[in-house]
């Protein structure tokens, strides 16, 4: 298949397969909404339709927790392979010389990777580096990209508030147009005080909340419980998300059940970030080394919305990563023990719920935010198939990748090293 031109409006996708393996044609209207899904037809392909026989068609993915201001800074930061405190130290050292131009360049590069992989919505946290000449440089850079790429993808900017930053500094960042308020209360000297400060600000501003929460293995660190209690007591109506929540994976079943009941009652969503937390957590532990993940299956069983993301890409917090949602799904299956449907939901529909986006996918009435992958089946996709992909946002092509692979093993035996 030759790659369709970027920006092409697509009227239909012919011969694709659903996640369940059914061969279908998917028709779209001019507004980028799916109007019909019907059994695949042998009728001629019309103008504006893409013939992708056998390709797997899925909702486009969501990255609910990125750090675009940090992306691709691993080499320049000269970070060691290490745990969360060493990653923070390395980043703080690099952030002293941060500029808006630097953030724009690396973040734009990361977004092209996300888009090519099938991600059409990203929420990125962004720091206010206290020692930088312009602490707001990262915020300004990401807000600029949000506007420049508005027709290409949905980008939400989440302020990652430090407990060392005064509230006036946070207010200045929010005044620039930040979408979501975040922070790391569990790293503060007084986690409850910091959590209360951030929720006071969010309540006053009427802004969504997405907090780094309990990103460590100590089962005694449960600011998620205080978060759930305050959200319920305040009657907050905006979306509130707890990201990481690693300590939940260290709780015994009885204590975990009590916490999850409060999380569910408060309406919190949880974002798990397997690649970064598998990298950072458990380095100091003697065997057996813990997984460094929240209790993902138990959260799902309790009825909590659980989305998943890649978190960091090649920065001090994670030196690897492909900015690929199907790298995340592979880890959800292997490390979190989810099944294929649960893993797919975590990087698609659940992510849209966390970001407050309308439903998308190959169903009647869904937004045509779609990714078609040349793969054998859904399992092949979720394992991280690296073949060809076509990505649509609102029915228009925003990314197309074609891959050709040739190996000696593909050739018939008489042509390899055999003389006539």
CATH level-4 homologous superfamily of the largest domain: Metal-dependent hydrolases
SS field, number of helical segments: 14
What does the radius of gyration come to? 22 Å
Second rung of CATH, namely the architecture of the largest domain: Alpha-Beta Barrel
Kindly estimate the percentage of residues that lie in beta strands according to DSSP.
Answer: 15-25%
* Mean of all residue-level pLDDT scores: 94
> Which spans have pLDDT < 50 for at least 5 consecutive residues?
none
Sheet with the most strands: spatial strand order: 6-7-8-9-10-11-12-13
Annotation, overall tally of beta strands = 16
Structural class call reads alpha/beta
Shape: globular
| End-to-end distance | 35 Å
Summarize the helix and strand pattern as letters. EEEEEEHHHEHEHEHEHEHEHHEHHHEHEE
Supply the number of structural domains: 2
CATH class of the largest domain equals: Alpha Beta
Q: Percentage of helical residues?
A: 25-40%
Largest sheet: 8 strands, parallel
CATH fold descriptor of the largest domain: TIM Barrel
